Amino acid sequence: MINLRRLAATALTVFTLAAPLAQPMLAGAAQREAAGDTLSAQRDPQSRQFLELSVDTVTPTTVTTSSSPTVTVTGTVTNIGDRAVTDVQVRLQRAPAVDSSEELRTVLDASQDQFDVVGPFTQIHDELTVGQSARFTVALPLRSTETTSLDIDEPGVYPLLVNVNGTPEYGGAARLDDARFLLPVLGVPADPTDPNAPAVPPSTSDPVSITLVWPLADRPRLASGIPGSVDDKVRLVDDELATSLAAGGRLEQLVAAAEFATDDDLDRGSALAESMCLAVDPDLLVTVANMTRGYLVVDDPGDPTGPARDGTGQAAATEWLDRVRQLAADRCVTAVPFAQTDLTALNRVGDGTLTARALTSPADIVDAVLGVTSLRGLTWPDSGVLEPGAAATLTGLGPTALLADNAVADAGTAVRVPIEGGNNGGPLYATLFDSSAATALAAVGQSPQTPTFTPDGARYDLTGDSRSARLQDALGAMTWTALTTRSTAARMADADRRSVLLVPPQDWSADGDEAAAILSTASTMIGSGLATPEPLADLVDRPAAPTPLQLRYPDQAVKDGAPAAAVDGVVAIAPEVDALTETLVYDPQSLLTPEGYTAPLEEDLLRAMTTSDRRLADLASSTFTAEQRVAEVRAALDRVYDSVTVLAPGGAYTLASEQSPLLFVARNDLPIGITVQLRLSAPPGMTITDIGDQQLPPRGSRALQVPAKVTETGKMVVDVALTTANGRELGDPTSVSVRSNSYGKLLAIITGGAGALLLLLAGRRLWHRFRGQPDPADEGYEDR
Predict the structure, then answer these.
(1) Spatial CA neighbour of 630 closest among 604, 595, 596, 610
(2) With left for phi above 0 and alpha for psi between -120 and 50, is residue 371 left, alpha or beta?
(3) Can you say how many angstroms the Cα of residue 575 is from the centroid of all Cα atoms in its chain?
(4) 89 near 166, Cβ under 8 Å?
(5) Residue 779 pLDDT more than 50?
(6) How many Å separate Cα 164 from the centre of its chain?
């Protein structure tokens, strides 16, 4: 998408440009206005933008009764057009205070006419040539009796706009760009120009209960397709985590901001710490814990078993993990689904082992790595929404899902509601977070994102807003509920405490300064009496209404979800990994268990269904990565199966008798024992006895003796294959030539005939003796 505010500014410019340029641009503006959908319109290919305005700082970021009575904005204007622009001026404007949560987003794309409190223009440059930039500072008092001001005399969240005008070459003066942001005013400072205008504090008669989830997560980094091992170093697809965990890195700064804000000297009474809960991705902990033991970084992410170099982040990983352990020691901690797995995709796969590894095992991992007892029974889908089928999957694994307040129909202002989708495992509930604030928080940082649950009418391109402006929007959104005082009648009608649950995205790109500003604002809300801390555990235990509500699963969730091809691959492969686990041998003397050997492959399948990078611009890249992970697990299974084989004997096998056994040697190159079956295809004239399941030792061989009975002589060919108990072929099948010296049926006939002849001759002799007659056979021998 595009920045429609800049399109509107460009459209106004056309009225003063030369005629050949004006008409097509005017047509484009008219078409966009007629379409009525300013958030999804496409840029007119013939329109032009001349200047780009960016807000760099806003002072104060949050206005209180003790802050400066003047709002100062600094920024940069750059000529991005194809011609010089002269007489460049800026001014500050204000719109009315936000009076609904929806406006927190939509006002940032509203018509400039709504910003009807207007300050004077300030000249910043006589001429900006193509590519040239100029810094500016513009300031207005919040209120004043002597000069133009923003006319803010009571607390609230106010939309501000910085407008830049100029005169492009060959044209006339026009508005060329603007930037918008929210200014939270928690209290109005005294007016220095009017002694009768003292400071105006906020109303604290109806405080909100505030809870803050602090995410520590990252996109999957471990290379796929490498089974578990006791001694081998793990492999990562890149070494970006080394930077993120080190001083000044993203993950280090998120931890540092939480450490500083909840320090006993600053957070007296531990009010902010009480309201905060760390939400940790177990995949990140698994990766970092492995990094502390030394790790490798592959040269080619597409070749996870290929050449690799030593990683550089072992020390940073060790220090960061120690700090997280200390931070988590006296904090609420909860685990998110493994690798931010798409729960809808997980439900479609329907594999019990994967489901448990995604939803049940994370808490155990977090507890084991951090040495804590995490908050159980809470599942936070990365998307913030839940499909009804996936809700049934959660039942029995945890009674509560953490969802956006617009992910449930007709929730109103409730913070905990029962939802449809439960089964015999028991009821399922949703603890709801503020979707408007969560949308604004997701835009903070280096990689702004628009959450899945954000309504279509509140979606626009974030790249046109500076990081400072996006931070201001977040601060305004997170304070809005506390600054909106309910009437006495409304309070009586709704006896429950008002709550605001603030939830950034799991993979959040905020830096240390941005994180500190958000935590500072939350602390200020508590300190000023606008909010009271509420632990997440208390919030999820609140009573809920008895009637279940329907889930809303937006179309955007399909786009943001795991790619279908990757899910199809997981559906096919997951049963094979389960079957491999069952056929491996548990050895109490070995540290490597069957589950430990196949767990990385199962985790790779979960990583293939991650949603951590699906809301960024490059969907094609994330789709390719997901499909590649599935392919690498398939390749790993093939390598495992090829590592167990039956050895073909050289030359022909000669049987000494008709019941001589056949001897084979099976070899296992895996680091763990495996149960196999020998499958032989017996030719006519040979009967083979099934020897059943056989166990092969790790990295060893075993002779297998197969009873056989041969009824024919000559050369025979026996086809030999090694399989798992469930029939999966191991290694390459082979053929064995067998030579039998047995006469078979011919020997039986000869033996039978000789016996019959012997009986006949003996009977004849006895007959003659019985009759007293000499036997004719004795003639000629009588006298000897």
Answers:
(1) 604
(2) left
(3) 22
(4) yes
(5) yes
(6) 40
Domain residue extents for the chain: 4-185, 209-565, 566-642, 644-740, 745-778
| Selection from 261, 291, 294 nearest residue 276 by Cα | 261
* Mean pLDDT for all residues in the chain: 86
Kindly report, residue by residue over 295-309, the tens digit of the pLDDT. 999 999 989 999 999
pLDDT band at 492 (very low <50, low <70, confident <90, very high): very low
Cis peptide before 698 (omega within 30 of 0): no
Residue 567 and residue 626 in contact, taking contact as beta carbons nearer than 8 Å: no
Determine the distance from the C-alpha atom of residue 74 to the mean position of all C-alpha atoms in its chain, rounded to a whole number. 36
**Where are the extended beta strands (E) located within 346-415?**
378-379, 400-404
CA dist., res. 651 & res. 655, Å (int): 13
The predicted model gives 175-188 an average pLDDT of 95
Res 707 pLDDT > 90: no
Q: 209-565: what fold?
A: 7-stranded beta/alpha barrel (3.20.110)
Query: Could you write out the DSSP letters of every residue in 450-465?
Result: --TTS-GGG---STTS
- For 108, 112, 152, 400, 642, the CA distances from 159, given in Å and listed in that order, are 7, 11, 11, 36, 65
Read off the pLDDT of residues 116-126 as tens digits, 9 standing for 90 and up: 999 999 999 99
Lookup: tokens for 731: 């290694």
- What is the model's pTM? 0.86
Residue type, 187: G
Please give the radius of gyration of the chain, using alpha carbons only, rounded to the nearest integer: 39
Question: Which class in CATH covers the domain with range 644-740?
Answer: mainly beta
Is residue 286 a contact partner of residue 208, using CB atoms and an 8 Å limit?
no
What is the rounded distance in angstroms from the CA atom of residue 609 to the CA atom of residue 355? 12
pLDDT of residue 128: 94
Inter-CA distances, 749 with 695, 711, 753, 761, Å: 43, 13, 6, 18
- Strand, coil or helix: 201: coil
Please tell me the distance from the alpha carbon of residue 442 to that of residue 435, in angstroms, as a whole number. Answer: 10
Please list, residue by residue across 284-308, b when 16 or more beta carbons sit within 10 angstroms of its beta carbon and e when fewer do. bbbbbbbbbeebbbbeebeebeeeb
CATH for 4-185 is 2.60.40.10
Tell which wins on pLDDT, 48 or 169.
169
Structure tokens at 308: 């690799």
Please give the angle made by the CA atoms of 64, 69 and 70, to the nearest 5 degrees. 120
Mapped onto helix, strand or coil, the DSSP state of residue 235 is: strand
Would you say the CATH fold of 644-740 matches that of 209-565?
no
On whether the CB atoms of residues 49 and 98 are closer than 8 A, the answer is no
Contact at 8 Å (CB) between 627 and 565?
A: yes
Instruction: Identify whether the C-beta of residue 97 lies closer than 8 Å to the C-beta of residue 167.
Output: no
Q: Tokens 């810094």, residue?
A: 135
Neighbours of 198 (CB within 10 A): 12
- The Cα-based distances of 26 to 20, 31, 46, 352 in angstroms read 11, 9, 10, 59
If you average pLDDT over residues 531-540, what whole number do you get? Answer: 95
* β-strand pairing of 729-740 with 653-655: parallel
Cα–Cα distance measured from residue 411 to residue 545, given in angstroms and rounded to the nearest whole number: 10
Q: State the residue for tokens 């402006």.
A: 469
Of 328, 316, 323, 320, nearest to 368 by C-alpha is 328
Query: Which single residue is written with the structure tokens 């352990």?
Result: 325
| 446, 511 contact by CB (below 8 A) | yes
pLDDT digits (tens, 9 = 90+) for 136-161: 999 999 999 999 999 999 999 999 99
| pLDDT tens per residue across span 629-671 | 999 999 999 999 999 998 876 656 666 556 677 888 899 999 9
Mean pLDDT to the nearest integer, 236-246: 97
> 661, exposed or middle or buried, with CB in 10 Å at 0-12, 13-18, 19+?
middle
Does the pLDDT value for residue 724 go beyond 70? Answer: yes
The confidence score (pLDDT) of residue 290 equals: 96
